[in-house]
User: What shape does this take?
Amino acid sequence: MAIQPVALVTGSSSGIGAAIASQLARDGYLVFGGSRRAESPAGVEALALDVCTDESVRAAVKAILDRTGRLDLLVNSAGQLIAGAIEELTLDQARSQFETNFFGVARMVAAVLPQMRQQRSGKIITLSSLAGLVPVPFWGYYNASKFAVEGYCETLRAELKPFGISVAMIEPGA
Assistant: This one.
């Protein structure tokens, strides 16, 4: 009997994250959908998860591993956009943008990597943005956070390949 693959999708309460979580469930994954509101689409197990806090991330990953003993796929879909001219946005707004879009990804990866390395397999997919390649005016801090994600994931891909863990980015545009 084949083992049912296990996926965790962050930002699964709406938008692209909800669509990805639903499709993975239809494709036969046991899907845990993480969001601050602990809401997920039908067929996806809702999990309270705030990618901006170490404790929340550790607790969510631990709950999945305690229940399933494995994690095959992480989809980093949680994100936010704070738009406006750079000179009009505060550094607190910039920090918030990076805390979710960049450090949230790094926090999630750090939490799942020990299990994936132990399994010698896994997939990490991160939603970046075309704005991480070509900046959009009035999205300065968003662009910067996605540029950081691009560099992080490119590096991660090379570092994790020897462990049988693949890393990919999806770069949607408008």
